[in-house]
TrEMBL record:
Region (Disordered): 69-105
Name of the protein this chain belongs to: Vacuolar ATPase assembly integral membrane protein VMA21 homolog
Topological type in the membrane: Multi-pass membrane protein
Homology family: Belongs to the VMA21 family.
Entry keywords, A to Z: Cytoplasmic vesicle, Endoplasmic reticulum, Membrane, Transmembrane, Transmembrane helix
UniProt biased composition (Polar residues): 86-105
Cell location: Endoplasmic reticulum membrane; Endoplasmic reticulum-Golgi intermediate compartment membrane; Cytoplasmic vesicle, COPII-coated vesicle membrane
Coiled coil, from the record: none
Known role: Required for the assembly of the V0 complex of the vacuolar ATPase (V-ATPase) in the endoplasmic reticulum.
Keyword Iron: no
Organism per entry: Theobroma cacao
Amino acid sequence: MPAGVVQKFFITSMFMWVAPLAILYGFNHNLLGLSNLSPNAMTLLSGFAAVISVNIVIAFYICMAMKEPSDKHEPDPKFLADAKASVSQPTGEATTSSQSQKKQE
């Protein structure tokens, strides 16, 4: 995993904590100039704004992840050979055992 991906994840995670807390702090200490609202309205508005800020950070992180270069992934050749061998095995044993179970019932 490249270091840039980890750094972007860490920074985005920090914003997911800092943004809602800053919004709640700003509303509770009247830093946004909305002191004419009732306490109930202030609580609801600050909560909605905090939730929206987290969703904006998540959307921003998704956009950053979508822009990441994606190299073509090549599967392990041994895994492919084992998978092809397991698919090409005859399934006659499974059908005969299921038929014998039906006879026993």
